[in-house]
Amino acid sequence: MVKQTIQIFARVKPTVRKQQQGIYSIDEDEKLTPSLEIILPRDLADGFVNNKRESYRFKFQRIFDQDAKQETIFENIAKPVAESVLAGYNGTIFAYGQTGSGKTFTITGGAERYSDRGIIPRTLSYIFEQLQKDSSKIYTTHISYLEIYNECGYDLLDPRHEASSLEDLPKVTVLEDPDQNIHLKNLSLHQATTEEEALNLLFLGDTNRMIAETPMNQASTRSHCIFTIHLSSKEPGSATVRHAKLHLVDLAGSERVAKTGVGGQLLTEAKYINLSLHYLEQVIIALSEKHRSHIPYRNSMMTSVLRDSLGGNCMTTMIATLSLEKRNIDESISTCRFAQRVALIKNEAVLNEEIDPKLMIIRLQKEIQELKDELAIVTGEQRTEALTEAELLQLEKLITSFLEDQDPESKLEVGADMRKIHHCFHYLKKLLHDKKIHRQSTAPSENKDQNCQEPLKEEEYKKLRDILQQRDNEINILVNMLKKEKKKAQDALHLSSMDRSELRHGQSSPFPPGNPDGPKTLPLSASTQALDSSTSPYRSSLLHRKTGMREEMSLGRQEAFEIFKRDHADSVTIEDNKQILKQRFSEAKALGESINEARSKIGRLKEEITQRHVQQVALGISENIPVPSVPDQLEEKLRSQLEEEKRRYKTMFARLKALKVEIEHLQLLMDKAKVKLQKEFETWWAEEATSLQVNSPAVTASNHMKPFPQMSEAQHERSQPLSNKSDVYARKILPSPGPLLRNQGQSSPAAPVEDSIPERPVSSVPLTGDSQTDSDILAFIKARQNILQRTGFQ
Ligand code: ADP
Ligand code: MG
């Protein structure tokens, strides 16, 4: 058992503006626990009497400042937890902080760069690497991904996500067994045998979550996501199985209501927007108070699911994510205060061991055999399953004399042998049974002549059989008649219509005649095509969803999508990743070739060494010299060359493996970005459609069209005359400045992301250069009007 308080870490998100840096300081004295001091800016601390404090100090296990890399976070926070999970203990890492403070970035990772991958992909990578190294145990890994939104649980990996919306899926519910263990009904567990498979599940879940999100339901900030790695391990031959769970939790934004930032309400305990976080806090307060017997876990789904992680059988770690800017000071202080309370909670992690029933049976069977053998040695007689003929005869004699014995007290004694006892019971049962039958068969014939009995029975039997045959025939005839009558009636009613539809059906059948397998083989070949570009069913489902969305697009909409895509800042990221992917592919290809070369070189070297051996033996025989026991110089050289080549091969192989994971990750990132792009386009499109319907018929493109929401700032400014109305909206959701800056310098549209989408006609490309003339603007308006006309909005 390992007793430990919940470990708390703080991570400060990089601030955009440098002047914010005076707001906090980190004191990392080697001897003391590191502390974070949040300094209240003058203009906030002054001006009201009640709040005299100017700074707040909070202790953490470790504090990661703005420049901390994802790698460092993993090494210091997640790796120790992953190690204890591998040893068989439960583990939990949860990120807590206000929206935008970097919870998702820390837990899952950034959506752009491979190096930005967060705790989940790195932990998966680490765990699978360790599992491969350890051949002393047999491991099984399963993944589940749960989202809790408004107290309802959703399975993000439910295969039915493809067809239905989140609300239509069966809800995940919490069940408690008599031992107070929590079980989650409707949450699917997916086995993952490799890192790639697990990674695919993560991306599938994230994409499902993204698709389910609507502007009305900003699930990503209000929901909790729990990614769980279930690991079981067993030593070969042992009946004990160890189960460990690792929950990686991205909590809902911890922001509270009554956030004024100034005035008397500053730093007073405001209420959570999210009710389940309120319950989480209640549980944590209850746990940190001594002598509290009742902990209100049952109040919310999240606290029920994480019950073991909070004051139970688990090693738990919390990461307080902080966005330390002036306007976030009060939220940051709340987050730190919460962390201080969490740090008081003690957990007791125990090894979760269980006996495998199947292995237990095998073990017991073995034990029985051993006991039998022992018994045989002690009694001196070899017992078999069956009794011998002589034993059986003797038993029957005993039974007969027992039955014949008039003494009611008499006993049937066969000794302490279960086989004999069982045999006696069987024998007695049989006797009783035989006697009963005998009595039945003799009763009716008692008054008759024994000789007449047999023919009479035979005659009766024949008669009955004939009657039965007749009835059968009657029934058959009646059924046939009924069928004919029914058909006649139907024919009279539907004759003409049926004829026509039959004809139609015959003509339009999509399957070639004489091929009964048609309906089966067609969808099958289609699905193999869909699988072509992907390595796993999960990835193919991401792609399928993506392409499925586009297939429904009309031509005009596709064109609008093209423009939208080009103006979207994310397309730069996609393009960048595409370039990186290309590089990685060519690197992998080159590496593959070098590996093949190394392999053949190893083969050649081995052959040379063998030949050298043969030569020496031959020399020994012909010249009668004994073959030297140690390799000669030449062989020594060949051997060291071989070793060197093997080392090279191993290094290259390891690099290729890592490249494969990176390529897979990049592909998934790109897929996700594409789905996101498409989803945002759909939203934009729907908004356009509604606004057009509202404003119709006096609509003109110049004053009612919204700009594409993710349009880069430069393009946006250039299109001001077109979009005077919605720039606030456009700015609000502009992504990070990195890709935008790059986009500004770009004068020609990015290469199409989807090769299969038809190229845009050059005439409809608006806003391509700095010297934008009126005619360009007009061309743009015309292009948009074209799109709208084509799709029936004008
Ligand atoms: P949350 O999940 O807490 O709402 P996010 O993880 O989505 O916040 O972060 C908000 C934004 O800040 C994202 O664009 C993310 O990429 C960026 N971000 C967060 N933390 C970091 C960091 N440590 N380094 C770089 N960017 C970060
Ligand atoms: Mg988030």
Short description:
The chain is 53% helix and 12% strand. The protein has helices at residues 42-45, 70-86, 103-107, 119-133, 195-212, 219-222, 275-288, 301-305, 329-342, 357-379, 389-404, 418-442, 453-508, 518-531, 537-551, 555-567, 570-623, 633-695, 701-704, 713-718, 727-732, 737-745, 774-790, and strands spanning 2-5, 7-12, 24-27, 35-39, 55-59, 62-64, 91-96, 138-149, 152-155, 173-176, 182-185, 190-191, 224-234, 240-250, 315-322, 346-349, 353-355. Helix 4 runs antiparallel to helix 5 (195-212) and helix 15 (537-551) runs parallel beside helix 18 (633-695).
What's the mean pLDDT score? 75
Structural class: alpha+beta
* Shape summary: extended
Distance between the termini: 71 Å
Q: Cofactors and ligands present?
A: adenosine-5'-diphosphate, magnesium ion
Oligomer: single chain
* Contiguous helical run count: 23
Helix content: 40-55%
Query: Radius of gyration over alpha carbons?
Result: 39 Å
Number of strands: 17
Beta content comes to: 5-15%
Major β-sheet annotation: 10 strands, mixed
Poorly predicted parts: 259-268, 496-541, 543-549, 698-705, 710-781, 790-794
Pfam families: KIF9, Kinesin
InterPro entries: KIF6/9_C (IPR056524), Kinesin-like_fam (IPR027640), Kinesin_motor_CS (IPR019821), Kinesin_motor_dom (IPR001752), Kinesin_motor_dom_sf (IPR036961), P-loop_NTPase (IPR027417)
Protein name: Kinesin-like protein
Family: Belongs to the TRAFAC class myosin-kinesin ATPase superfamily. Kinesin family.
How would you describe what is shown here?
This is Kinesin-like protein. Mean pLDDT is 75; it is low at 259-268, 496-541, 543-549, 698-705, 710-781 and 790-794. Strands 2, 6, 7, 8, 9, 12, 13, 14, 15 and 17 form a ten-stranded mixed beta sheet that branches. This protein has a three-stranded antiparallel beta sheet with strand order 3-4-5, covered by helices on one side. Strands 1-16 form a two-stranded antiparallel sheet. The chain contains 23 helices and 17 strands. Helix 5 (195-212) runs parallel beside helix 15, helix 5 (195-212) packs parallel to helix 18 (633-695) and helix 15 runs parallel beside helix 18 (633-695). The relative contact order is 0.08. With 794 residues, it is α+β, with helices and mostly antiparallel strands. Strand 13 and strand 14 form a beta hairpin. Adenosine-5'-diphosphate (ADP) binds at residues 13-14, 97, 99-105, 110, 221, 253, 321, 736.
